[in-house]
Write a structure and sequence with these properties.
InterPro entries: Galactose-bd-like_sf, NADH-UbQ_OxRdtase-assoc_prot30, NDUFAF1. By secondary structure, the protein is mainly β. It is about 10% helix and about 35% strand. A hairpin with a 2-residue loop joins strand 11 and strand 12.
């Protein structure tokens, strides 16, 4: 049994703006102040009612586990096709009786742009999968590393963490984004470990030249994307097919609190 999400020319994705980081957060059910108050009250209740062991978080925490096609409900796809590009992408999860299920993010990167494009871009060449917003946020303040069990194609991918806006002007209402490169060796399962300190603050794909610290206690979502150009030295680049297989994504605590 398979579940599949697809995006590409002719396959409109009205959620692209939200996935690319330029969407507008709407319909907040409570103000930021109310969420901060609730979080403080809940933490105080736990401290008063539990032991120290109860308060100590586990050394690792699953964020995503690609073991069921229901996982597709947590993700959006986006690509340059929303801007007139010709790249395509899909995310599928195959459930097997003979082995564990995994997610497969694959597609084709193209630098070409449709002649009738309404957007003024000179070339394409990117695709990504972004998680839908968590129910509120997840608190990763007790962790220092993001780990992914992946098998790929020798390309370099981009891991992005989205946090509640506290860097940009409140009037912009965009999520803050923090990005790090992930090199994925070809044809071998590999556990990539990325310290949170390695994630750089970015705005619409450009690194913000400022000393800013991430707020890991307000994580709203994550994404994994691929570009035809750029990346780390030695990685495969250029247009053409891409394919990365995902088992899970976790938060780890490598250092003692």
């Amino acid at each position: 049994m398979q579940g599949v999400l697809k995006v590409g020319p002719g396959q409109s994705n009205s959620l692209f703006l939200a996935c690319s980081g330029s969407g507008v957060l709407r319909g907040k059910k409570m103000s930021r102040f109310r969420r901060l108050v609730d979080a403080s009250v809940n933490a105080t209740k736990r401290a008063l009612s539990g032991t120290f062991d109860d308060l100590m978080p586990p050394p690792e925490r699953y964020i995503f586990n690609f073991n069921s096609k229901k996982e597709l409900n947590k993700w959006h796809l986006y690509s340059d096709s929303e801007l007139g590009g010709l790249s395509t992408a899909s995310l599928e999860i195959t459930e097997s009786d003979n082995g564990p299920s995994t997610g497969i993010f694959s597609g084709k990167l193209s630098l070409d742009v449709a002649e009738d494009s309404k957007w003024s871009i000179s070339r394409g060449g990117f695709c990504g999968m972004r998680s839908k917003k968590f129910n509120g946020f997840i608190d990763l303040d007790s962790y220092d590393t993001i780990a992914m069990k992946i098998k790929g194609d020798g390309r370099c991918y981009i891991s992005t963490i989205y946090t509640e806006n506290w860097v940009n002007s409140p009037a912009q209402m965009e999520d803050n984004s923090w990005q790090a490169f992930v090199y994925v060796p070809k044809d071998h399962w590999y556990i990539a470990k990325i310290p949170l300190a390695r994630y750089l603050p970015t705005w619409r794909g450009n690194v913000i030249d400022a000393e800013i610290e991430m707020n890991p206690s307000r994580v709203l979502g994550m994404s994994l994307s691929v570009n035809a150009e750029g990346g780390v030295p030695g990685a495969r680049t250029g247009p053409g097919d891409f394919r990365v297989e995902l088992d899970w994504i976790k938060a780890l605590r490598q250092n003692e609190l």
